[in-house]
Design a protein that fits this description.
The complex is a heterodimer of chains A (about 325) and B (about 210). With about 325 residues, chain A is mostly helical. Chain A is built from 12 helices and no strands. At the A-B interface, helix 1 of A face helix 1 of B. Bound molecules: iron/sulfur cluster (2 copies).
Chain lengths: ~325, ~210
């Protein structure tokens, strides 16, 4: 009986893995197209229009082009680390999908440490960026990597604290429990400050403008992935867009009631909310200029962390009183 | 402490204001023109190469081949020939080497009959210098064809009086030939070329 249950779960794992792979690919293709469209329309341009309906399969064409590109390995790179970095950046991305509940039953594994799993693996992204930058043996790449580490250390703290205040209210790390706790009211209304702080930190965690210092084009060429070409570069790109999906999914689960919504099936509501958050993050990118590095660190240590802590303390007090 | 809170609030407000601007632009209609499929209307002040004015009454050009324009042109790029048709003199060839033109407008201004104007032609990319040599006469004929007007033929020299009928043709014919020889090779080939550059120009103006 036990073995039967195990084999079923292994089968489920494999099916889940295939589903996740497909989701990652389709999501990245869609997000790149969406980003180009959003940026274009904010600048009164049409964006890609030539390949497919309104350029819908433009990104597929781009991906095919990237596949055909030569994989250049510069002479003086630290080869094992250089080759491992694109794989390492992709791993946490895949693991995070293990615990994300897309709807009531659509979840690969409902762990009771779901949040911790995602957040701890998300920290691996920094490691991968550091590996890529260091192994590239390129000053721009190293600078990008160093900035990324400083930034991620600074922004992971308020991120965790804001999530903590929601977890305090629910009393569980399990993501399905957090969704279930929002059956009456979404936490975005109970914890508006936490939501705003989370979105800011999430933007910084995914290294997106206005916090895209690790890959600031105007200063660092392409930052940590300067020396990567072809499919290796594509993996970094894929990881960035999948990370966006993950932080948006977390925001949906923590603040927007997850898959809950009237009429439509859960998965549809979930995706609508996720892409709405992603649109918000894109909207930031095409509105705000990149911050200076000292501003970035100041924002985190002087504003976000105190605010997040204050929010946590207030939440704890209110919970105690009620 | 109050300044700290105030800074956060004003900063947050300014961020929201910025996002308000971009979202307003997001829903505005786009301004990009998908060039080969859509085209912009050129402004009235746009100066393309010169062309003949088509007189709506006579349905043809007004040029009297006085050669004032070709003499005035500071770049000496107008090559025109006139022939006598009865009492009148008419141009039988009007070719400009547009790549030398400075668009100064002197030719347009000096013309006693206001026979010239600037066209709105802007698609002038070509593979050789020859592509920039424009046969203004052929262009006018093409315009007439498009409007459905009678096409002005290239006038043949006609004898003025009967007595001279025998003697005149020879020097009259020899003269253009001699003139041609003086001119650069490009101008020589020009009359053959006009159809090609003129055709995209027609479509252009139609749309
Ligand atoms: S615009 Fe000036 S340069 Fe051009 S053809 Fe006329 S007179 Fe010559
Ligand atoms: S000045 Fe006018 S009328 Fe005289 S030749 Fe030139 S275009 Fe013809």
């Amino acid at each position: 009986m036990a073995t039967a249950a195990q084999s079923v779960s292994i089968f489920g794992m494999i099916a889940g893995l295939i589903g996740v792979m497909a989701l990652v690919a389709v999501n990245a293709l869609f997000l790149i197209w969406m980003e180009r469209k959003v940026s274009a329309h904010m600048q009164l341009r049409p964006g890609p229009m030539e390949v497919g309906w309104h350029g819908a399969i433009q990104t597929i064409a781009d991906a095919l082009k990237l596949l055909g590109k030569e994989l250049i390995t510069p002479r003086d790179v630290d080869k094992p680390v250089y080759l491992a970095a694109p794989i390492v950046i992709f791993l946490p991305v895949l693991v995070s999908f293990l615990v994300i509940p897309f709807s009531q039953n659509l979840i690969i594994r409902d762990m009771n440490v779901g949040v911790l799993l995602i957040l701890s693996f998300a920290a691996l992204t920094v490691l991968a960026i550091l590996m890529a930058g260091w192994a590239s043996n390129n000053k721009y790449a190293v600078f990008g990597a160093i900035r990324s580490v400083a930034q991620n250390v600074a922004y992971e703290i308020p991120l965790l604290i804001t999530l903590m205040s929601v977890i305090l209210m629910v009393g569980s790390f399990r993501l399905t429990d957090i969704v279930a706790a929002q059956s009456r009211i979404w936490f975005v209304f109970l914890q508006p400050i936490a939501f705003i702080l989370y979105i800011i930190c999430a933007t910084a965690e995914t290294n997106r403008a206005p916090f895209d210092l690790p890959e600031a084009e105007s200063e660092l060429v392409a930052g940590f992935h300067t020396e990567y070409s072809g499919m290796r570069f594509a993996l970094f790109f894929l990881a960035e867009y999948t990370n966006m999906f993950i932080v948006a999914a977390l925001a949906t689960i923590f603040f927007l009631g997850g898959w809950r919504g009237p009429f439509l099936p859960g998965i549809v509501w979930f995706l609508i909310k996720v892409y709405a958050i992603i649109f918000l993050i894109m909207w930031f990118r095409w509105t705000f200029p990149r911050v200076r590095f000292d501003q970035l660190i100041t924002l985190s240590w002087k504003i976000l962390i105190p605010l997040a802590l204050a929010n946590l303390i207030v939440t704890a007090f209110v919970l105690k009183l009620v | 402490m109050t300044s700290y809170v105030k800074e956060i609030l004003t900063g947050f407000y300014s961020l929201l204001a910025g996002m308000g601007v971009t979202i307003r632009y997001f829903v505005k209609p786009i301004v990009t023109v998908q060039y080969p499929r859509e085209k912009l209307q050129m402004s009235p002040a746009y100066r393309g190469h010169t062309e003949f004015v088509l007189d709506p009454e006579t349905q043809t050009h007004r040029c009297i081949a006085c050669e004032l324009c070709s003499r005035t042109c500071p770049s000496q790029l107008i090559h025109l020939e006139g022939v006598k048709v009865g009492k009148k003199k008419l141009p039988s060839k009007y070719v400009i080497e547009y790549h030398l033109c400075s668009l100064c407008g002197l030719c347009v201004e000096v013309c006693p009959t206001q026979a010239l104007q600037f066209s709105k032609e802007y698609r002038l990319a070509g593979y050789s210098r020859q592509d920039a040599v424009i046969d203004v006469f052929a262009r006018m004929q093409a315009q007439q064809r498009r409007l459905g007007w009678p096409v002005t033929p290239i006038p043949e020299p006609q004898p003025e009086a009967e007595g001279e009928a025998e003697a005149k043709p020879k020097p009259a014919k020899a003269k253009p030939a001699a003139k041609k020889a003086e001119k650069p090779a490009e101008a020589e080939a020009a009359p053959a070329a006009p159809e090609t550059p003129a055709t995209p120009a027609e479509e252009e103006e139609k749309s």
